[in-house]
Amino acid sequence: MYTLKKDASGEVEILHREGKPLFCPFKPILLVPSNISGQLQMHREPCGSHCPLFNVLIDNKAALNCGTGVIILFDKTEETKPQPKLIKL
Description:
The structure is a single chain. By secondary structure, this protein is mainly β. The chain has one domain (about 1-75). About 0% of the residues lie in helices and about 40% in strands. The chain has strands at about 1-5, 15, 20, 30-35, 40-45, 55, 60-65, 70-75. The strands form two sheets. Strands 3-2-1-8-7-6 form a six-stranded mixed sheet, with no helix packed on it. The protein has a two-stranded antiparallel sheet with strand order 4-5. The protein is flat. The mean pLDDT is about 80.
């Protein structure tokens, strides 16, 4: 099952399948320096709403225009939760 979840900043929605983020197959993997000296980390770009080829449609559908124009059905599980209010007595 596909889901859209917000990233850590809360601004971008990332497409997930079975709880794991999907990554863009068209962007190359970047090698960036690690915190440990002499080692490199692989950085992959996730598939999400920050991409101009990703469109969120109505009725829980997302259109991916980067390949064959696939439309994916998803559950939007990460909705904004109401903040508890402090009531003074």
